[in-house]
Amino acid sequence: MPQINLQGTVLEYQVKRRLRLNYALNLQGRNLEVVAPLGAGVAEIEAMLQEQGPRILAKLRELEAAASAAKPAAAPPAPADSAPRSRPYTKRRLQSELEDNSRLMQIELGGHAIPYQLKHALVQGISLRIRAGLLRVTVPLMYPQADLDAFLQQKSAWILRHLQLTPPPANTPAAHSISLLGQTVAYQLKFSGRKTVGFTIGADGLTVTAPNGMPLPTVEAALRSKQDWIVDKLAQRAAHTPQQEFVWADGVSFPYLGRTLRLQAARGAAQPAHLEGDVLRLQLPGEASPEKLKRRVHTWLQAQAGDYLEKRLAHWAQQMQIGYAGMRLNAARTQWGSCSAQGVIALNWRLIHFDPALVDYVLVHELAHRQEMNHSPRFWAVVGTYFPAYKAAREQLKDASRKLPPGL
């Protein structure tokens, strides 16, 4: 089994290649399992491991500390004439010591806020079980949260069915139209378990999601109360030209915390990505295909986002004197941040592409939800106390989000 030296710590690792776009790491004792995309070479994999070295070693120390704390008190020395006995450190034993390595999470599936118990274990894949009305999810050690969110979305029909929360047949969108500000506006109407009427404007136009059983006149009254916003957003959507897919290649420029970085990719022995001034340098063997460059740059960006956002979140939590249960990164398509009822703040790693002031606005916004889990006047008063220019920042964030090209 090959070995790698991470800051003086030697770990054995095993590579499994799968049809996927990113990496997953499973740590078993001092053995590391790497699930890599098809086509990823050894040099590229080892460069990725070097970049993720601090996080791997932190997880290793955490597991070793948990295992050490779970060991029973030392037994008295055995008589000299008796054979020494030692309890083998088996997979089952380590698994039992990790039983408390679980936490309560939440995800929205089909309009329902679904709580679930998440446990990391010495397993090869993801398992789902329903016990006592609670979804229990077991994943490999160090499994990326973004990949888990995508998996749960794919399994949403199965989860909702077993939790007896399957949306009714009436949830199928139906075509409607209404006159708003003298214009005939077509929209798709669907129903869900939500408590308020929601409006979404996408590639297919306006979609209205209403609580189950709400009469159509009530839905139309809600539409008229938001008619200025709806007509304005539909006009912006019609005028907006779809951006081309961003293609990663040597020499391309991309935004990074208010700066513009340039990618410089060279052929040679694989080396971890490193920043020199405003140039991100990559060195990798073989042909640098756009997909390979994208994986390497995204790995580096996600590591930088984790460090930067963690520090800024801690800074603002201290300024606001607000506590939180933890932070995790995700790759959500429609949200830059969220705060769960348990106090876990999820942040989109692509915030790293925005100006630091906009990032700070998102952090203050999510921390304010620790006091007000809504968008009431009281909530905005909390935000305004620590970020007075929040209204301008909110509009700038929307504008920056629209200008961010897909694939970046």
Structure, described:
- The chain has 408 residues and is of the alpha/beta class.
- It folds into four domains: 3-68, no CATH class; 101-162, no CATH class; 171-239, no CATH class; 253-403, 2-Layer Sandwich (Zincin-like).
- Helices cover 35% and strands 30% of the residues.
- It contains eleven helices and 19 strands.
- Strands 1-2-4-3 form a four-stranded mixed sheet. The protein has a four-stranded mixed sheet with strand order 5-6-8-7.
- Strand 15 (271-276) and strand 16 form a beta hairpin.
- The protein is globular and about 70 Å long.
- The model is unreliable at 78-91, 93-101 and 167-172 (pLDDT under 50).
Brief summary:
By secondary structure, the protein is an alpha/beta fold.
Named CATH topology of the largest domain: Zincin-like
Strand order across the biggest sheet? 1-2-4-3
Radius of gyration: 25 Å
- List how many beta strands DSSP finds: 19
Overall pLDDT: 80
Largest sheet: 4 strands, mixed
End-to-end Cα distance: 36 Å
Q: Low-confidence spans: pLDDT under 50, at least 5 residues? A: 78-91, 93-101, 167-172
Q: How does the overall form come out from the CA principal axes?
A: globular
- Please identify the top-level CATH class of the largest domain: Alpha Beta
Tell me which CATH architecture of the largest domain applies here. 2-Layer Sandwich
Helix coverage percent: 25-40%
Q: What structural category do the secondary elements indicate?
A: alpha/beta
